[in-house]
Amino acid sequence: MASVFTEAEIAYLRERMRGTIGTVGPDGQPHLTPTTLHYNESEDAIDVGGVSFGSTKKWRDVGKNAKVTLLIEDVLQNPRRARAIEIRGTAELHETGGESINPRFANFDAQFVRVRPTRIVAWGLEEAATTAGEFRVNARTVG
Asked: What's the CATH code of the domain at 108?
């Protein structure tokens, strides 16, 4: 099965373990929070979890509205270049398996969220662009 991600996006996701997840509360208010993530190659999805994850607002929000956005980003210094991938998708609640998302932390909750991408917007990953003229965005609907 072919991945919805490009090779450069997969390489970037494999090296990054932290991102920001956006959920929507029952009142319609967006909620952003930093979180730990892992690219799940066998599922071609992103697993998101953490300490006390099953008792968080993001967990409750996903239980009511499965539409989420992930943002994984950084800035390289020499030459200065922004890189990022925005993943919009549908989140699934999982009651077990979250403790394996980041094996460095023994206290990760079993509960986690799996994000199945529906739209991907990436920039700064496919090329070594350093000027605005070279900067390219790769945006596409995937699900």
From this structure: 2.30.110.10
Dump pLDDT digits (tens) for 42-95.
999 999 999 999 999 999 999 999 999 999 999 988 877 889 999 999 999 999
Q: Please tell me the distance from the alpha carbon of residue 9 to that of residue 29, in angstroms, as a whole number.
A: 30
Direct distance between the N- and C-terminal alpha carbons of the chain, in angstroms, rounded to an integer: 14
| Domain assignment of residue 112, yes or no | yes
Residue labelled with tokens 């079993």: 110
Chain centroid offset of residue 11 CA: 13
Q: Give the C-alpha distances (Å, rounded to integers) separating 31 from 3, 35, 96.
A: 29, 12, 24
| 53 falls within a domain | yes
Q: If we measure between CA atoms, which residue out of 12, 21, 42, 1 comes closest to residue 138?
A: 12
Structural domain boundaries enclosing 75 = 7-141
Bridge partners (DSSP) of residue 94 are: 112
